[in-house]
Amino acid sequence: MTVWARSCPNVLLKSLLKVIDNSGALVVECINVLGGARTASIGDEIVCVVKKARPITDLGASSSTGGSASSAAAGAMTKLKKGDVARALVVRTRQPVRRLDGTFVAFDDNAVVMLNKQGQPVGNRVLGVIGSECRQKRWAKIASLAPKIV
User: Fold this and answer.
1) What is the largest distance, in Å, between two alpha-carbon atoms of the chain?
2) pTM (2 decimals)?
3) What is the DSSP string of the chain?
4) How would you write the pLDDT of the chain (150 residues) with one tens digit per residue?
5) Which one, 39, 40, 98, 136, has least CB within 10 Å?
6) Which of 55, 39, 53 is nearest to 114 (CA)?
């Protein structure tokens, strides 16, 4: 019999997480778990700092060829920059999570969706699957943006 409950921790401080939305951040580091817990699981909110972000495109070169549509797209790619501190929602964890029907679900990586201070997603697309615990924990907006819920 395998005991999954304490085999490895969920998202701790200093954990690196993959960002699966189009907010501009690629990798973030957890610096605080909101709600008083020491670890974060699927559906929990954390505070994180952007460690790696998408490169900023040159607006001068894009405006001469594409007009306002390309400059708007370039502005959308730079919502978060390296070093920015922001909130995020944990949507996937490597640690198996027990569901009410007794099944366990675990993902290949730890992933987050970036949030603003009001709790709304920073990006307007979620790229990848998320856990169904997000919908159960009042995150219906992010669940509606996801292409698939597991």
Assistant:
1) 64
2) 0.82
3) ----TTSS-SB-TT-EEEE-BSSSEEEEEEEEETTS-SSB-TT-EEEEEEEEEPPPP-HHHHHHHH-HHHHHHHHHHTSS-TT-EEEEEEEE-SS-EE-TTS-EE--SS-EEEEE-TTS-BSSS-B-S-B-THHHHTT-HHHHHHSS-B-
4) 444 445 557 899 999 999 999 999 999 999 999 999 999 999 999 999 999 999 987 655 554 455 555 445 544 446 899 999 999 999 999 999 999 999 999 999 999 999 999 999 999 999 999 999 999 999 999 999 999 999
5) 98
6) 53
Report the residue count for the chain. Answer: 150
Tokens of 7: 């085999």
